[in-house]
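Incident log entry.

Two folding requests arrived from the same account within the same minute. Monitoring flagged them as a possible duplicate submission, but the sequences differ. Recording both here for audit purposes.

Request one:
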Amino acid sequence: MSIFRKIKESQTLLINNQSKNLESQDKKVFKFGFGQSPFLPSEIVMEELRLNVHHKEYSSVQGDSALRQIISDFHRQMNGLKISKDNIMIAPGSKILIYSILLSYKEADVFIPAPSWVSYAPQAELAGHNIIPLETNFNNRWRVTAESIDNAFAKKRFKESIMILNYPGNPDGLTYTKQELEQIAQKAREYNILVISDEIYGLLTHNQEHYSFINFYPEKTIITTGLSKWFGAGGWRLGIALLYEGIEDDFKNALIGIASETYSCAATPVQMAAKVAYGNVEVAKEYIIKQCKILEEVGNYCYNKLTNSEIKLHAPEGGFYLFPDFSNYVAKLKKKGIFTSDELCNSILSETGVALLPGTAFGMPENQLVVRLSYVDFEDPLQKNDFNLERDCPKIIEGIQVLKTWLNAL
């Protein structure tokens, strides 16, 4: 028996490496598996990063004070959040912030939607918590409901409860209505749940109508966000946690203590550049709106083409993901020896070069034939004066057609 923990490599990072390996063998790959923004950070912010490379000093563990004030002002103007700078934490990515929140609890039940982002469950497992799935289905648009929360709470083991929400969602690209959020907030209040609302894609809601969960449940919600999605700077590793007002001293001290003993602080030059990224709301809004228009057009193109092939799918509402359901092809896929989403993705990749992620990576049963498709395999079109899907997204168009051809041949 091994003395080491059994934690698999993140599926999103694994598919990125697999795609690169195939490309190094001169094989054509359609990179629909790895979700990375194709948009470049704005030139003025990249220049600010260059100008601040000499800042080699550590910053405050909680993050640069001036930056935290700028972020507070940004979110007040952008989506009406009233979070003081003292209740903002900055870290090298939102992933480590979510993990730090989980680690702050000695033991808890962690309620995680199925499907949900690949790292939530492994992080909860590493923190020693009890994981309880929140069941969803295609017909309710993969949404958490009051009923699914009630059902999950029947399986509780510990006193403390944590629920993770993510919307617009990874892997589904869908968001919540105000009414849906109100119903979830009512249950969160009833059961005294700490809610981690991962709103990293919030500013990329296609119609610009993102509703932060903290506005519905202000007493016990922590929002996580950062530069990786709306600003296209995933590798810069700058994440943000917006803590609820009145957060318990013990909780906040635990978060800061974990930070001080693990990541210490976010990179100081990146924090300096982030002041410019967050410092002009009007410039940020213009940049975001341009991205959303392009992502909406590309996402709807993929949605329309795939639904024409009898794939079950919901139209995207934010971010850059689709969650296709191949259940209409069960009989044909069985004849090909495909019974699981892993087998489905492996077969598609080896036979077509289309890289997708299986539903199992997102907490779905292995026999449920769902996959995640990320529609960002194109170069940043904002460097041009206009956007033309046929000209600017040739690999999206070809990859979707290759996938359709494979399905038609079953």
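Request two (distinct sequence, not a duplicate):
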Amino acid sequence: MSMSHLPSALWLTVSPNLKRFDQRLLCRLSKRVSIARWEYIQTVDEPCCLEVVIDLLHEYLYKNLTETNKPVDMIGHGLSGIVGWLYAQRYPEHVRSLTLLSVGANPAVNWHAHYYALRQLLPCSREIILAQMARMLFGPRSCDITRVLVQMLAQDLDLGLALHSLVNCQEIEPAQIKPPLMVCQGAHDAVVNSAERWQPLLKPSDRIWTCPQGHHFFHFDQPRLVETAILNYWQQIDRLEKIADLSAVLNH
């Protein structure tokens, strides 16, 4: 990517087997802003380690932002959002804002954690539990669509980056970040914690937005609503930055 064509926004993808659910929203945003997708692909020979992912993301951003010194608006869904959250804690100077989709205030409690909890509790096959997860994550779907969703979820469990397994569940300590934060959740998301749990981590300029009728992948079903909410928040950040710049000039 050339330095003259740097994006103003960066979509994070660390679950490539599920990235098609991001595409509708990403396409809509790309018509309004300059946005790029950063993707991490887990290989079978590598350990599932968030530190490696964060280092690679930093290498990409440092390489592309050093000369321009312009931070980006970062977006991520689920585990991708968790990576963005951890990155913003460590390198806030590279993040103009962070938008989290379907990330709870307890970030380690994602859909993988729910799946493994059900595996331990229910005497059911993997396919039956994944079908239950599909209904939880996407809402009621036809039998044919559910079968496709089960295959995609299985691929993400087997091949993608993961925090959890049958024998181990990782913990992530929630923390407030310096960049502006927007938390987006589905009104009927059975995975993510309630919005109230975010309150201790929010700054006055941060925002929580709930997508009506949305489940865990609400941005796939309601891309227009989510696009509007995100663009409105970015416009709010623009206004706050202009006010801050004007105040700095007047006080100089």
